[in-house]
Write the structure tokens for this entry.
Amino acid sequence: MTIIDRFAERAGYADYASLHRWSVTDLDGFWSSVAEFFDVRFTTPPTAVLGRREMPGAEWFPGATLNYAEHALRGTGVAADDIAVVAYSQTRPTSELTWAQLRDQVARARDGLVRLGVGRGDRVVAYAPNIPETLVAFLAAASLGAVWASCAPEFGARSVVDRFAQIEPAVLLTVPGYTYGAKPVDRRAEVAALRAGLPTLRHVVAIGHGDGAIPDAVTWNDLLATGSAHTGATAPVFDPVPFDHPLYVLFSSGTTGRPKAIVHGHGGILLEHLKNHALSWDLGPGDRILWFSTTAWMMWNALVSGLLAGASVVLIDGNPLHPDLGWQWRIAAETRATIMGASPGFLMACREQDVAPGELPALRQLGAAGSPLPPEGFRWVAEQFGERVLLNVGSGGTDVCTGIVQGSPWQPVVVGEISGPALGVAAEAFDPDGKPVVGELGELVITAPMPSMPVGFWGDPDGTRYRDTYFDVYPGVWRHGDWVRFSESGSCVIAGRSDATLNRGGVRLGTAEFYAVVEELPEVADSLVVHLEDPAGGNGELLLFVQLTGGVVLDDALRERIGGELRSALSPRHVPDRIEAVPAVPRNRTGKKLELPAKKILLGAAPDDVASRDVLADATSLDAFVGFAR
């Protein structure tokens, strides 16, 4: 029996449609049931479930106090000597932490932060990889009511300062370097630049990772050394904080302007991740979750929340494709992962290169997120695992730090589509007039509040930027920024970002539809489509950029073939006016294509004004568009 079976039976629902309907129409009943079912420990009980319902400004569990870290470390259904953390790295040997060791390290790190003067509301930031120390420091900061934020060490100093300077951190945890695949990377110059660019820093804590040392820093061992503040016990202390007290700040990608500093609260993340991880991912005590992520992506925050469910987490630090595409599958086999997350790009690369995952008898779910998974990816997963493994394709985001649409053990898998809205998420498609549409493309909206909607943006005291980001088009309704089509049965297709959709002859076209056709051609490794509108109201110019496979040349014959495939598979409106070859398609570090920055460059913007090179997977990938703009 899955966890959603037990939850639904207790609530009195026998199918997903009715369970979902209850979850978005009876918010008080559903979220109070989530809190009760997962034994949420309120230090001070709430006076209500939902004080105010309107968006923005919904008030969840008013009067309640609790602590996220207490729930992450309680180890529901596991023993103290069970493994809580398994860490794989290309910089140092594989390591493990039991639940008892994890609690002890968090207790010591908390005491160390107290000795450094950290208290409630202070900001603790990490320029560090996905390693146990980063997880320990996060939980220690959360236990104090301090506010956490992290960036991956592959980011350059400018990008990190653009993010961290907004929240004025007191303590920085960092590493001198790391190994990426077989290549050692020295980050000491970047750390020096961070110190210079963050004047509010009072202390730097250096984690021993990679070659070299960071001068004038507290070492990790010093931070964990027993001092006068140490409790003397292996169990950390948890300060109860209000439900919406800031837990961490996540940053938007920075590809469309200054990164937004999105504040998430203790209670909202706790309730949402308990719900998501157990009811959608079927994650519970004794399970193990593996999902490659850097510390700059919200999937890191989702990954470490596996601890909330009593599951152990697998941390991976390094190049996910080194020494080959099979590395992550081998880790899944060695760790007996029960759920594994993978990017659609990774799954498609395995398909194209005939990489077999091998025997993974413990695996029950394979998650895919970050970009659309083409139908061929669904079929490849089915060929590899059959019906034994549920393919759970989802889409959500940093803004809510969870999935908005995804699958679960109770939802059917639909080839080329996402199974439907997640529990507790009132997701719909709206037309420009704010009316729901089914069977046609519209704006992805959320019509009822969720606990994990942001507390706000840092540095936005009156909420103006927050309202302008999500509520500027449909008053009282969250506009997520994706272009989506829902079917009558509830399944959906994300057709790209709504600000990158194409308007040809008054018909809006989703970019994902282009890619599904073009990238099935063996000559095309990747592609990007941009529409330059005509200010006079004409069709404008539709431009397709293709990254070709090795040795292929873009000639007139290939251009005609690509246009013909788009015409027959989609429509004459989808045939580009021009097709050009580029060395690389611009993507950010989580794999999302950057249509809007490319479009802005083609319209005359400077590359550094639309996207920092540090957020690009390939720092040179926008250069070709500068040439086309000229």
In short: The first strand starts at residue 50 and ends at 52.
